[in-house]
Amino acid sequence: MNLSKTPPCEECGEIVESVPTCLEFKGEEIFLFDPAICQPCLEKLCEIYSTECANCGGTIPPYSNVGILKAGNGQNQYIHMTTQCNTPGNAFYGYWGKGTAREYVQIEACS
Ligand SMILES: [Zn+2]
Ligand SMILES: [Zn+2]
After folding, report:
1. pTM of the prediction?
2. What residues have their beta carbon closer than 5 A to ion ligand 2?
3. Which residues are near ligand 1, the ion (C-beta closer than 5 Å)?
4. Which listed ligand is nearest to 42 at the C-alpha?
5. How far apart are CA 91 and CA 45, in angstroms?
6. 71-103 tens-digit pLDDT
């Protein structure tokens, strides 16, 4: 039975040295627990799939939570899930994956 706690990288199949994978990318700190991606692959994914925060203009790396703003015309804008960027009134949040947001969740209005 394999009790190793470090799973193979989903991208390249190499053993991930430590989980979570930590990476600093353009000022954003990323701690990735799931999926298991090794650091070199994560950096590559960040370069390919990062998007821009509509609020501060900063980088939103893949595999992070995002606030989703409905910009009209079926367009979405994405913002950081931080107190600076995530203003009250945002109706949605999601998960920024490889170039698309997934798992949209509508935040219930507080009564
Ligand atoms: Zn890898
Ligand atoms: Zn931001």
Report:
1. 0.78
2. 53, 55-56, 58, 80, 85
3. 9, 11-12, 38, 41
4. 1
5. 28
6. 888 888 999 988 889 877 666 888 898 887 765
Q: 9 near 16, Cβ under 8 Å?
A: yes
Counting ligands in written order, which one lies closest to the CA of residue 37?
1
Region 107-111 average pLDDT: 53
Rounded to whole angstroms, the Cα distance separating 68 from 103 reads 11
Give me the mean pLDDT over the 27-55 stretch: 93
Distance 29 CA to ligand 1 centre (A): 18
Q: How many other CB atoms are there within 10 angstroms of residue 58's CB atom?
A: 17
Element (H, E) at 39: helix 39-49
Predicted pLDDT of residue 104: 55
